[in-house]
Amino acid sequence: MKIVLDGFGGDNSPQEIVKGAVLALQKYKDLEIIITGDKDKLEALFNENKQDLSRVEIVHTTEIIINDESPTEAIRTKKDSSLVVALNILKEREDVCGLVSAGSTGAVLTGAFMKIGRMKGVSRPALAPLLPTQNGGKVLLIDCGANMDSKPINLCHFALMGSAYMQNVFNIENPRVALLNVGVEDKKGNELCHQVFPLLQKLPINFVGNMEARDFLSGKYDVVVSDGFSGNVLLKASEGAIKMLLSILKSEIKARKMSMLGALFMKKSFKAVKKTMDYEQYGGSPFLGAKKILIKSHGSSFAQSILASIEQVIQINKDNLYEKIEKQIADTKDICDSLIENE
Asked: Is the pTM of this model over 0.85?
Protein backbone atom coordinates (compact mmCIF):
# COMPACT_ATOMS: atom_id res chain seq x y z
CA MET A 1 0.00 0.00 0.00
CA LYS A 2 1.38 3.39 -1.02
CA ILE A 3 0.25 6.72 0.45
CA VAL A 4 1.53 10.15 -0.56
CA LEU A 5 2.15 12.88 2.03
CA ASP A 6 2.38 16.63 1.46
CA GLY A 7 5.67 17.01 3.33
CA PHE A 8 5.58 20.79 3.63
CA GLY A 9 1.89 21.36 4.32
CA GLY A 10 0.85 22.58 7.77
CA ASP A 11 2.10 24.72 10.63
CA ASN A 12 4.41 22.03 11.99
CA SER A 13 5.83 20.74 8.73
CA PRO A 14 8.04 19.11 7.78
CA GLN A 15 9.11 17.85 11.24
CA GLU A 16 5.76 16.50 12.43
CA ILE A 17 4.82 15.17 9.00
CA VAL A 18 7.99 13.07 8.95
CA LYS A 19 7.45 11.92 12.55
CA GLY A 20 3.91 10.86 11.67
CA ALA A 21 5.22 8.99 8.63
CA VAL A 22 7.79 7.20 10.77
CA LEU A 23 5.12 6.14 13.27
CA ALA A 24 3.01 4.76 10.42
CA LEU A 25 5.94 2.89 8.86
CA GLN A 26 6.77 1.32 12.21
CA LYS A 27 3.17 0.25 12.77
CA TYR A 28 2.34 -1.00 9.26
CA LYS A 29 5.04 -3.18 7.74
CA ASP A 30 3.33 -3.37 4.33
CA LEU A 31 3.07 0.43 4.02
CA GLU A 32 5.15 2.57 1.70
CA ILE A 33 5.27 6.36 1.99
CA ILE A 34 5.80 8.83 -0.83
CA ILE A 35 6.56 12.29 0.54
CA THR A 36 6.96 15.56 -1.36
CA GLY A 37 9.17 18.50 -0.45
CA ASP A 38 12.80 19.57 -0.09
CA LYS A 39 14.71 16.30 -0.45
CA ASP A 40 17.72 17.26 1.67
CA LYS A 41 15.58 18.44 4.60
CA LEU A 42 13.30 15.41 4.44
CA GLU A 43 16.20 12.94 4.28
CA ALA A 44 17.82 14.63 7.27
CA LEU A 45 14.61 14.37 9.30
CA PHE A 46 14.13 10.69 8.48
CA ASN A 47 17.73 10.09 9.56
CA GLU A 48 17.14 12.01 12.81
CA ASN A 49 14.18 9.73 13.49
CA LYS A 50 16.30 6.66 12.70
CA GLN A 51 14.08 5.57 9.85
CA ASP A 52 15.67 3.86 6.87
CA LEU A 53 14.40 4.88 3.46
CA SER A 54 13.71 1.41 2.08
CA ARG A 55 9.94 2.07 2.19
CA VAL A 56 10.16 5.83 1.61
CA GLU A 57 10.17 7.64 -1.72
CA ILE A 58 11.09 11.33 -1.51
CA VAL A 59 9.96 13.45 -4.46
CA HIS A 60 11.88 16.70 -4.49
CA THR A 61 9.92 19.96 -4.82
CA THR A 62 11.03 23.57 -4.65
CA GLU A 63 7.87 25.49 -3.71
CA ILE A 64 5.44 25.73 -0.78
CA ILE A 65 1.84 26.97 -0.77
CA ILE A 66 1.02 29.09 2.29
CA ASN A 67 -2.35 29.99 3.81
CA ASP A 68 -2.29 33.63 2.69
CA GLU A 69 -2.20 32.78 -1.02
CA SER A 70 -5.17 32.60 -3.33
CA PRO A 71 -5.90 28.85 -3.58
CA THR A 72 -6.75 28.85 -7.28
CA GLU A 73 -3.78 31.02 -8.21
CA ALA A 74 -1.42 28.95 -6.07
CA ILE A 75 -2.52 25.64 -7.60
CA ARG A 76 -2.15 27.06 -11.12
CA THR A 77 1.19 28.80 -10.69
CA LYS A 78 3.08 26.78 -8.07
CA LYS A 79 3.33 23.62 -10.11
CA ASP A 80 6.43 22.47 -8.20
CA SER A 81 4.89 22.93 -4.74
CA SER A 82 4.75 19.98 -2.34
CA LEU A 83 0.93 19.97 -2.51
CA VAL A 84 0.52 20.17 -6.30
CA VAL A 85 3.14 17.49 -6.89
CA ALA A 86 1.45 15.26 -4.28
CA LEU A 87 -1.92 15.77 -6.00
CA ASN A 88 -0.39 14.89 -9.37
CA ILE A 89 1.08 11.71 -7.90
CA LEU A 90 -2.30 10.73 -6.48
CA LYS A 91 -4.01 11.42 -9.80
CA GLU A 92 -1.49 9.76 -12.12
CA ARG A 93 -0.19 6.77 -10.18
CA GLU A 94 -2.51 3.78 -9.93
CA ASP A 95 -0.42 2.24 -7.12
CA VAL A 96 -1.08 5.22 -4.80
CA CYS A 97 -4.32 4.82 -2.86
CA GLY A 98 -4.54 8.12 -0.98
CA LEU A 99 -3.09 11.48 0.03
CA VAL A 100 -2.69 13.25 3.39
CA SER A 101 -2.10 17.01 3.64
CA ALA A 102 -2.15 19.44 6.57
CA GLY A 103 -1.69 22.38 4.21
CA SER A 104 -3.99 25.26 3.33
CA THR A 105 -7.58 23.98 3.32
CA GLY A 106 -8.50 26.21 0.41
CA ALA A 107 -5.55 25.01 -1.66
CA VAL A 108 -6.14 21.35 -0.82
CA LEU A 109 -9.82 21.53 -1.79
CA THR A 110 -9.18 23.62 -4.89
CA GLY A 111 -6.43 21.25 -5.97
CA ALA A 112 -8.66 18.25 -5.38
CA PHE A 113 -11.44 19.79 -7.51
CA MET A 114 -9.04 20.75 -10.31
CA LYS A 115 -6.81 17.68 -10.40
CA ILE A 116 -8.61 14.72 -8.80
CA GLY A 117 -12.21 15.46 -9.70
CA ARG A 118 -15.41 14.11 -8.23
CA MET A 119 -16.84 10.65 -8.14
CA LYS A 120 -19.37 9.79 -10.84
CA GLY A 121 -22.85 10.83 -9.76
CA VAL A 122 -21.74 12.97 -6.81
CA SER A 123 -22.94 16.56 -7.17
CA ARG A 124 -20.34 17.95 -4.74
CA PRO A 125 -17.59 16.31 -2.64
CA ALA A 126 -17.64 17.26 1.06
CA LEU A 127 -15.28 17.44 4.01
CA ALA A 128 -16.34 15.00 6.72
CA PRO A 129 -14.48 15.15 10.05
CA LEU A 130 -15.11 12.82 12.99
CA LEU A 131 -15.53 14.19 16.50
CA PRO A 132 -15.82 12.43 19.86
CA THR A 133 -19.15 12.22 21.67
CA GLN A 134 -19.83 12.24 25.40
CA ASN A 135 -20.73 8.54 25.43
CA GLY A 136 -17.39 7.52 23.93
CA GLY A 137 -18.65 7.22 20.38
CA LYS A 138 -18.06 9.23 17.21
CA VAL A 139 -20.11 11.61 15.12
CA LEU A 140 -19.45 12.52 11.48
CA LEU A 141 -20.07 16.09 10.32
CA ILE A 142 -20.63 16.51 6.57
CA ASP A 143 -19.97 19.16 5.15
CA CYS A 144 -17.63 21.26 7.32
CA GLY A 145 -16.38 23.80 4.79
CA ALA A 146 -15.91 22.53 1.26
CA ASN A 147 -19.17 24.04 -0.04
CA MET A 148 -20.20 27.41 1.38
CA ASP A 149 -23.38 27.54 -0.69
CA SER A 150 -25.15 24.22 -1.06
CA LYS A 151 -28.23 23.04 -2.92
CA PRO A 152 -30.72 20.41 -1.74
CA ILE A 153 -29.21 17.71 -4.00
CA ASN A 154 -25.79 18.37 -2.43
CA LEU A 155 -27.09 17.71 1.07
CA CYS A 156 -28.88 14.58 -0.14
CA HIS A 157 -25.57 13.26 -1.43
CA PHE A 158 -23.80 14.32 1.78
CA ALA A 159 -26.32 12.26 3.76
CA LEU A 160 -25.84 9.20 1.54
CA MET A 161 -22.02 9.44 1.68
CA GLY A 162 -21.94 10.07 5.44
CA SER A 163 -24.25 7.16 6.14
CA ALA A 164 -22.13 4.86 3.96
CA TYR A 165 -18.96 6.01 5.75
CA MET A 166 -20.23 5.22 9.25
CA GLN A 167 -21.82 1.97 8.12
CA ASN A 168 -18.81 0.55 6.31
CA VAL A 169 -15.85 1.97 8.24
CA PHE A 170 -17.29 1.80 11.77
CA ASN A 171 -19.77 -1.05 11.29
CA ILE A 172 -22.77 0.96 12.49
CA GLU A 173 -25.64 -1.04 11.07
CA ASN A 174 -28.18 1.78 10.68
CA PRO A 175 -26.44 5.16 11.19
CA ARG A 176 -28.68 7.88 12.62
CA VAL A 177 -28.59 10.83 10.23
CA ALA A 178 -29.65 14.31 11.36
CA LEU A 179 -29.93 17.71 9.67
CA LEU A 180 -28.24 20.63 11.44
CA ASN A 181 -30.88 23.22 12.23
CA VAL A 182 -31.91 25.86 14.77
CA GLY A 183 -34.60 23.63 16.26
CA VAL A 184 -35.82 20.04 16.17
CA GLU A 185 -39.27 20.88 14.81
CA ASP A 186 -39.90 19.94 11.17
CA LYS A 187 -40.70 23.49 10.07
CA LYS A 188 -37.66 25.18 11.64
CA GLY A 189 -34.74 26.65 9.72
CA ASN A 190 -33.91 28.56 6.58
CA GLU A 191 -35.14 27.87 3.06
CA LEU A 192 -32.45 25.26 2.40
CA CYS A 193 -33.47 23.28 5.50
CA HIS A 194 -37.13 23.53 4.51
CA GLN A 195 -36.32 22.08 1.09
CA VAL A 196 -33.94 19.37 2.27
CA PHE A 197 -35.91 17.98 5.21
CA PRO A 198 -38.64 16.17 3.18
CA LEU A 199 -36.04 14.94 0.69
CA LEU A 200 -33.96 13.30 3.41
CA GLN A 201 -37.09 11.62 4.73
CA LYS A 202 -37.51 9.83 1.39
CA LEU A 203 -33.92 8.62 0.99
CA PRO A 204 -32.93 5.03 1.95
CA ILE A 205 -31.16 6.22 5.12
CA ASN A 206 -32.08 6.35 8.81
CA PHE A 207 -33.02 10.03 8.88
CA VAL A 208 -33.99 11.00 12.45
CA GLY A 209 -34.87 14.67 11.85
CA ASN A 210 -33.38 18.02 12.80
CA MET A 211 -30.59 18.49 15.34
CA GLU A 212 -29.74 21.58 17.36
CA ALA A 213 -26.04 22.45 17.63
CA ARG A 214 -25.99 21.88 21.41
CA ASP A 215 -26.65 18.16 20.82
CA PHE A 216 -23.83 17.69 18.32
CA LEU A 217 -21.57 15.81 20.75
CA SER A 218 -24.38 14.16 22.70
CA GLY A 219 -23.99 10.74 21.11
CA LYS A 220 -27.57 10.75 19.85
CA TYR A 221 -26.48 11.00 16.21
CA ASP A 222 -23.96 9.26 13.95
CA VAL A 223 -24.04 11.64 10.97
CA VAL A 224 -24.88 15.35 10.94
CA VAL A 225 -25.63 16.87 7.53
CA SER A 226 -25.03 20.55 6.87
CA ASP A 227 -24.03 23.10 4.26
CA GLY A 228 -20.34 23.93 4.45
CA PHE A 229 -20.78 27.36 6.04
CA SER A 230 -22.94 26.25 8.97
CA GLY A 231 -20.93 23.06 9.38
CA ASN A 232 -17.66 24.95 9.61
CA VAL A 233 -19.08 27.26 12.28
CA LEU A 234 -20.32 24.24 14.25
CA LEU A 235 -16.97 22.46 13.95
CA LYS A 236 -14.86 25.45 15.04
CA ALA A 237 -17.23 26.26 17.92
CA SER A 238 -17.16 22.65 19.15
CA GLU A 239 -13.37 22.40 18.94
CA GLY A 240 -13.03 25.74 20.74
CA ALA A 241 -15.43 24.67 23.49
CA ILE A 242 -13.53 21.43 24.07
CA LYS A 243 -10.21 23.27 24.34
CA MET A 244 -11.70 25.90 26.65
CA LEU A 245 -13.21 23.33 29.03
CA LEU A 246 -9.96 21.39 29.28
CA SER A 247 -8.02 24.62 29.87
CA ILE A 248 -10.41 25.85 32.57
CA LEU A 249 -10.32 22.47 34.31
CA LYS A 250 -6.52 22.51 34.32
CA SER A 251 -6.38 26.10 35.67
CA GLU A 252 -8.91 25.43 38.43
CA ILE A 253 -7.03 22.35 39.60
CA LYS A 254 -3.73 24.25 39.78
CA ALA A 255 -5.35 27.19 41.62
CA ARG A 256 -6.01 25.25 44.84
CA LYS A 257 -3.85 22.87 46.84
CA MET A 258 -6.80 20.66 47.76
CA SER A 259 -7.80 20.47 44.12
CA MET A 260 -4.29 19.40 43.16
CA LEU A 261 -4.36 16.74 45.88
CA GLY A 262 -7.72 15.50 44.65
CA ALA A 263 -6.44 15.52 41.08
CA LEU A 264 -3.76 12.99 42.04
CA PHE A 265 -6.48 10.50 42.92
CA MET A 266 -8.38 11.32 39.72
CA LYS A 267 -5.35 11.31 37.41
CA LYS A 268 -6.53 8.29 35.42
CA SER A 269 -10.02 9.78 35.06
CA PHE A 270 -8.65 13.09 33.81
CA LYS A 271 -6.43 11.31 31.29
CA ALA A 272 -9.42 9.33 30.05
CA VAL A 273 -11.47 12.53 29.66
CA LYS A 274 -8.66 14.25 27.79
CA LYS A 275 -8.20 11.26 25.50
CA THR A 276 -11.94 11.03 24.80
CA MET A 277 -12.24 14.72 23.93
CA ASP A 278 -9.02 14.90 21.92
CA TYR A 279 -10.44 15.24 18.40
CA GLU A 280 -6.94 15.04 16.85
CA GLN A 281 -6.74 11.32 17.60
CA TYR A 282 -9.38 10.80 14.91
CA GLY A 283 -7.14 12.23 12.20
CA GLY A 284 -8.30 14.65 9.53
CA SER A 285 -11.33 15.17 7.33
CA PRO A 286 -11.90 12.79 4.40
CA PHE A 287 -12.91 14.61 1.22
CA LEU A 288 -15.81 12.27 0.48
CA GLY A 289 -17.01 12.23 -3.10
CA ALA A 290 -13.61 12.81 -4.69
CA LYS A 291 -12.37 10.15 -7.12
CA LYS A 292 -9.52 9.08 -4.84
CA ILE A 293 -8.93 9.13 -1.08
CA LEU A 294 -7.80 12.50 0.22
CA ILE A 295 -7.51 13.40 3.92
CA LYS A 296 -7.24 17.03 4.99
CA SER A 297 -5.46 17.06 8.36
CA HIS A 298 -5.61 19.91 10.85
CA GLY A 299 -3.21 22.70 9.96
CA SER A 300 -1.65 22.44 13.42
CA SER A 301 -1.33 18.64 13.28
CA PHE A 302 1.39 16.88 15.22
CA ALA A 303 2.79 13.41 14.54
CA GLN A 304 -0.05 11.47 16.19
CA SER A 305 -2.66 13.29 14.13
CA ILE A 306 -0.70 12.62 10.92
CA LEU A 307 -0.52 8.94 11.90
CA ALA A 308 -4.29 8.91 12.49
CA SER A 309 -4.85 10.51 9.06
CA ILE A 310 -2.67 7.88 7.39
CA GLU A 311 -4.68 5.21 9.21
CA GLN A 312 -7.87 6.74 7.83
CA VAL A 313 -6.56 6.21 4.30
CA ILE A 314 -5.63 2.63 5.16
CA GLN A 315 -9.05 1.88 6.66
CA ILE A 316 -11.05 3.55 3.87
CA ASN A 317 -9.02 1.68 1.25
CA LYS A 318 -9.36 -1.62 3.11
CA ASP A 319 -13.14 -1.27 3.35
CA ASN A 320 -13.51 -0.26 -0.33
CA LEU A 321 -15.56 2.69 0.90
CA TYR A 322 -15.34 4.76 -2.27
CA GLU A 323 -16.60 1.91 -4.44
CA LYS A 324 -19.53 1.42 -2.04
CA ILE A 325 -20.34 5.14 -2.02
CA GLU A 326 -20.28 5.24 -5.82
CA LYS A 327 -22.65 2.26 -5.95
CA GLN A 328 -25.02 3.83 -3.43
CA ILE A 329 -25.08 7.12 -5.33
CA ALA A 330 -25.79 5.21 -8.56
CA ASP A 331 -28.52 3.11 -6.90
CA THR A 332 -30.30 6.24 -5.61
CA LYS A 333 -29.84 8.41 -8.70
CA ASP A 334 -33.41 7.97 -9.89
CA ILE A 335 -34.76 8.67 -6.40
CA CYS A 336 -32.67 11.83 -5.99
CA ASP A 337 -33.49 13.06 -9.49
CA SER A 338 -37.22 12.55 -9.00
CA LEU A 339 -37.19 14.23 -5.59
CA ILE A 340 -35.45 17.31 -6.95
CA GLU A 341 -37.72 17.45 -10.02
CA ASN A 342 -40.81 17.27 -7.81
CA GLU A 343 -39.53 20.13 -5.71
From this structure: yes
